[in-house]
Amino acid sequence: MRTIVSNYINKTTKAAPLAAFRILFGLMMFISIVRFWSYGWIAKLYINPKFHFTYYGFEWVQPLGEFTYLLFFICALSTIGIALGYKYKLAIITFFLSFTYIELMDKTTYLNHYYFISLLSFIMIFLPAGVYFSLDAKNDNTKRFEYIPKWTIDVVKLLLCIVYFYAGLAKLNSEWLVHAMPLKIWLPGKYDLPLIGDLLHKPWIIYAFSWCGALYDLTIPFLLIYKRTRLFAFMLVVVFHVLTRVLFPIGMFPYIMIVSALIFFDASVHQKLLNYLGRLFKASTEKFNNGITLLYKPLTSKVKFGLLSIFFFIQLVFPFRYLAYPGELFWTEEGFRFSWRVMLMEKAGIAQFKVVDSQTGETLHIDNMEHLTVFQEKQMATQPDFILEYAHYLKEHYSTQGKTDPEIYVESYVALNGRRSKPYIDPKVNLAEQRDSFKPKNWLLPFEDEIKGF
After folding, report:
1. Are residues 345 and 352 in contact, defined by beta-carbon separation less than 8 angstroms?
2. Residues 226-279: pLDDT tens digits?
3. 3-state class of 83 per DSSP?
4. Cis peptide before 254 (omega within 30 of 0)
């Protein structure tokens, strides 16, 4: 076994695929950040709200007021450095830290593809993506290599395979396959789309989307890996993600996944792409074709490979943490995030809070809109950790308003995937006394239904 691992670590390949990936990744991230800024979302999501929902253990990560714009500027600037391969190591570390900080500022904005970008940028810190067709390699011939260890490209492929395959596994449940939920709720609303709008209310079309979506996610990694099916698989990637972009408002994610899938193609394809970019910007690739192979010192190679092995072990295991929790995952959402469960449910809810002065018994009913934005209230009403954090915020806020050791209660109702709304939180529990942790939240009321599958 040790010999097999050692032989694999020592395998080399052309650096062109990783260089092309670096350029495309940098460009896509730059466009994403400029798009985010241009839509006014920095102020809307991070500066204007009075309160921000934080991740457990990362409560110290908060928006920086007007300096949040500077944070986004630094993040955008780092993407240019990544694309150009200028001070690549500094650029990718800066991007990882700034982008991840942005995503941790308010979990209201959580999306799977933001998590994917943070993970991808983290592993790119360990990859020699700046040794070919980059300003670093152009300006310093000691940093110029035509060949690199093969595993430095394979780790990107592996992350993409995990994202797709785990997303497919998550669709193997009775909601998605048997009831076609939540597509049965979403697709009929797209009736105004040209060509396909009239079809999206037909049950067989909705079920076809559900089953084909699961089949796509489960098989596309293998179709991309296998050379004979790779071109067909990439065509499927383009069709699938363009269609999801048309049907759902999911921003840049479809384009990011399309571009990322190019990493599976042979080095000759990426070499042609780089040659084209070289002619376009008058920067020939010939200077970088020096025949030299990047060879890490044995200890360096083992440390990098070892750290990434631990990283991927966590990625393989972490999505299954929901098995340690009782109750229905879609209802409790304990273990739902960071597990590649993409667009699997439609939840709507209402949460009405009351603050009770523990000394006088005086009761105050809360208007959530005095404290939260519309988007924050929508997210809060259906997620227990949001509800608990908001309850603690209310306790602190009204403690300063003269309430003595205020107690916080909530009457909440949630509807999941078209079901009738049901009581969600035990209204008799003083949430101010509850503490967030990794333990099950025993103040959640039972789902009283069954969803079979992963």
Report:
1. no
2. 999 999 999 999 999 999 988 887 888 899 999 999 999 999 999 999 999 888
3. helix
4. no
In the chain, domain spans: 2-322, 348-454
Reference 69, options 94, 93, 36, 117; nearest CA is 36
Report pLDDT digits (tens) over 1-31: 667 777 777 889 999 999 999 999 999 999 9
Burial class (CB in 10 A: 0-12, 13-18, 19+), 89: middle
Which residue in 110, 109, 112 sits closest to 373, CA to CA? 109
Among the listed residues 98, 126, 104, 15, the one whose alpha carbon sits nearest the alpha carbon of residue 53: 104
Q: Is the pTM for the entire model greater than 0.90?
A: yes
CB within 8 Å of 334: residues ≥ 6 apart: 322, 325, 327, 384, 440, 441
Tell me how far apart the alpha carbons of residues 186 and 201 are, in angstroms, rounded to a whole number.
Answer: 10
- pLDDT given for residue 98 in this prediction: 97
β-strands 147-149, 407-416 pairing: unpaired
The rounded Cα 73 to chain-centroid distance in angstroms is 21
